[in-house]
Amino acid sequence: MTFVATVLTLYPEMFPGPLRTSLAGRALGQLWSLDTRNIRDFATDRHRSVDDTPAGGGAGMVLKADVLAAALDSVSDADEPRRPMLAMTPRGAPLTQARVRDLAAGPGAIILCGRFEGFDERIFEARALEPVSIGDYVLSGGELGAMVLLDACVRLLPGVMGAASSGEEESFDAGLLEYPHYTRPVTWEGRTIPEVLRSGDHARIAAWRHEASIRDTRLRRPDLTLRHGGVKQAPPSGAQRDE
Ligand code: SAM
């Protein structure tokens, strides 16, 4: 198995969910595996409590560190290479395509999903958890975030995508959004595919695509341009690289 995923959640029935369809679904059980653990199975009191009121007061409930630790300890790998342990939280570093590529190249991931107000903070240090956010908005639970992360990783596993090249030169790899795509018919509702893309001149096409990537990134994601220290010139091949 190339990539082994374990998800710790209060709602194991949500999995594999959408990951059972399309690319990820076809590869599930062949190139990657997914198992879930119910965090509630690690509660120790007779009410099977997993949460308690927040220290300092306030609304909501907090997932207990002792229960989370027991759940994590039940899956931590004894053998090398150890899988990274990730915790889904809006307080984490935003997930990037670079991190996804790293994870996909590794042995898999153990993913902890929160609910309510989230985790007792002490669990992060105690179990060396990497806090991961999937964006600047708040979901009701970490499960959809875990699915997003797994989908992004699994499609990069060798053999998952049909054409090996379709994972190359994608959005974010060079700090740029990908260039726009078109397909037949040439003219649709009065809009025509740019002439250069029909020219068969590969150098011109590569240059046009690079310019389009830069234009769209500046327009839609100026933060990406800044994060990557501005946009450099295209290499002679015209391939999108800005490293
Ligand atoms: N009180 C938390 C805060 O304001 O940061 C939000 C808790 S949220 C309602 C419950 C759980 O959903 C979190 O513990 C986390 O696992 C998950 N979650 C919510 N938004 C997320 C995001 N943007 N990325 C990753 N996980 C998220």
Polypeptide structure, described:
The protein has two domains: 3-154, 3-Layer(aba) Sandwich (Alpha/beta knot); 169-227, Trp Operon Repressor, Chain A. The protein is built from seven helices and nine strands, in the order E-H-E-E-E-H-E-H-E-H-E-H-E-E-H-H. Mean pLDDT is 92; it is low at 233-243. Helix 3 links the parallel strand 5 (85-94) and strand 6 (108-112). The protein has 243 residues and is α/β, with parallel strands linked by helices. The chain has helices spanning 22-27, 65-73, 97-104, 122-126, 143-154, 202-220, 222-227; strands at 3-9, 32-38, 51-52, 62-63, 85-94, 108-112, 130-133, 187-188, 191-192. The longest helix is centred in the last third of the chain and has 19 residues, at 202-220. The protein has a five-stranded parallel sheet with strand order 2-1-6-5-7, sandwiched between helices. It has a two-stranded antiparallel ribbon with strand order 3-4. The protein has a two-stranded antiparallel ribbon with strand order 8-9. The two termini are 32 Å apart. Residues 88-91, 113-115, 117-118, 133-135, 137-142, 145 line the site of S-adenosylmethionine. The site of S-adenosylmethionine has 19 residues, from strand 5.
